[in-house]
Amino acid sequence: MVEIMHSYSIDEERIKTLKVIGVLSFALTLPLLNIFKHIVDYINNLPYADIFPYIPQLATFGAIFLGLFYLYDRYLWKKSFVGIRLSKIPNINAYWEGQLNTSHGEGKQIDVKVNIRQTWSSILIILETGTSISKSEVASISLSKSRLVYQYFNEPLFSSAKTMHKHYGVALLDFEGDSTLKGCYFTDRDRQTHGDIYLKRSDGTNNV
Q: How many CB atoms are closer than 10 A to CB 126?
């Protein structure tokens, strides 16, 4: 089953990056139109072409923009060139393992596995325990506070205790270097539990 990622907010304007991609797309459009000038002229001479002018130009620009955006969104944003990263957004796209200390019942420590799938514009956080699985629905990364905040929906596994049921919650995780996430969580008033979360990046590679 393919999990659908959702957008996430950051405390930095993404529009600046989109403007750069737009300028690069425009710069690449002009030479490509010259290279394929005979095709452009053919399209412009088609019947009714005057009703929809500049079709080759707009189509070429749009295709280049989408291509550059895809490359940046999936790959380039997390790359470094001459020691400078193209984006300040932390790359947490990985598998994580750790513990969750919960206030549920008499309190206990639970082993958790977390799969974070992330691109420049989208993210999905899946946390699994032996009794339930939760998936993020809304998320935000604060660059100034080095913190990930997300709202999740939790569903018990079929084999879990009957006392467990679906619920919403919020997790706040601080970045401690590149390999540690540490923070807390709390659930809605129906569940009314809270606790601490400690995660370490595992060796597994998560390819989006």
A: 15
Of 85, 102, 128, the residue at which a domain comes to its end is: 85
CA dihedral 106, 112, 117, 118 (to 10 degrees): 60
Coil, strand, or helix at residue 42?
helix
Sign of the alpha-carbon dihedral angle for 193, 197, 202, 208: positive
Distance of CA 94 to the CA centre of its chain: 11
Instruction: Assess whether 81 and 101 both reside in one domain.
Output: no
d(Cα 138, Cα 128) in Å, to the nearest integer? Answer: 18
Tally the residues of the chain.
208
The pLDDT of residue 43: 63
User: pLDDT: is 191 or 199 the higher one?
Assistant: 199
d(CA 183, CA 134): 16
Mean pLDDT confidence for 96-124? 91
Kindly report the CATH number assigned to the domain that includes residue 99: 2.40.128.380
Per-residue pLDDT, 5: 96
pTM for the predicted model, two decimal places? 0.86
Q: How many domains does the chain have?
A: 2
In sequence order, the β-bridge partners of residue 185 are 171, 195
